[in-house]
Specification:
By secondary structure, this protein is an alpha+beta fold. Helix content is 37%, strand content 27%. Strand 6 and strand 7 form a beta hairpin. It is globular. The termini are close together.
Length: 257
């Protein structure tokens, strides 16, 4: 399977520092295309979020280059177990390193982290925080669940989904990498939909854009080239800012072709 890749990130209308960090890498093993996408949103309410997010991205980049090739040679079942085990270690070690950095500098620091690997017609996701992954094609699906206080209130029946969208607790994270102790990532595995578009985005990207607007913009049949996907990422970012978004804005788009 081949993939079209694109991304865009913007500091936004207000913040001077972009605390988001992105990784989008691809390679080829035995004629098979492998893609790793990672999006980390440094926590805006804390200090040095850009340090935390960049540290996690660099660690995933090293893993992709140095460890993944050997892992992929072990067969799909061992690959899946190995990927999830490696990602757990990465996120735990990064949480410890970021927390130690914060203690040394007398600050609180942390980041969200959402990683997605495409390999052998299968995708793997590790998720901490409130970044999101969507799948578009034959409709839309949100593949990740926000790890926020508002989402927990919805699950426990104290808020409706509509109420949660405007509730202040949607920005209160239940866990992160570096702040609040050891992260427990959510892991998701699924089959890559041929022709489908996969979107990783920060909360700043999707706060003021509806799922219906995202589906229309990233309609798989309308995207036939990487520059078209890039243009959509940029135009939606500008729409976010025009609608008053004040956070950093980041998005990664991957189309399976």
């Amino acid at each position: 399977m081949e993939y079209m890749l694109s991304y865009h990130t913007d500091a936004g209308r207000v913040k001077k520092v972009n605390q988001d960090s992105l990784l989008l890498q691809s390679g080829c093993l035995n004629g098979e295309r492998i893609v790793l996408a990672v999006l980390c949103d440094g926590m805006g309410g804390l200090e040095k979020g850009e340090v935390a997010s960049a540290s996690v991205v660099r660690r995933f980049a090293r893993w992709f280059r140095q460890e993944l090739p050997a892992l992929l040679k072990k067969g799909q079942k061992k690959t899946e177990a190995g990927v999830l085990a490696a990602w757990t270690v990465i996120l735990e070690q990064e949480a410890e390193a970021i927390a130690a950095y914060g203690r040394r500098h007398g600050i609180a620091v942390g980041t969200t982290a959402t990683a997605m690997l495409f390999s052998g017609g299968v995708y793997y996701i590790a998720h901490v925080g409130d970044g999101r992954v969507y799948e578009f094609g034959g409709g839309s699906r949100q593949l990740t669940k926000d790890q926020t206080l508002a989402e927990r209130e919805v699950e426990q029946g104290r808020l409706t989904r509509e109420e949660a969208e405007s509730d202040s607790r949607q920005s209160v994270l239940l866990q992160s990498v570096g702040a609040g102790g050891r992260p427990v990532p959510a892991f998701i595995r699924g089959t890559v939909r041929k022709g489908g578009v996969y979107l990783l985005c920060s909360d700043g990207f999707r706060h003021r854009i509806s799922t219906e607007e995202l589906l229309q913009a990233f309609c798989p049949s309308a995207l036939t080239a990487e520059d078209e996907m890039k243009a959509v990422c940029v135009s939606l970012t500008e729409l976010d800012k025009a609608r008053g978004e004040t956070d950093n804005i980041s998005v990664i788009a991957v189309k399976a072709v």
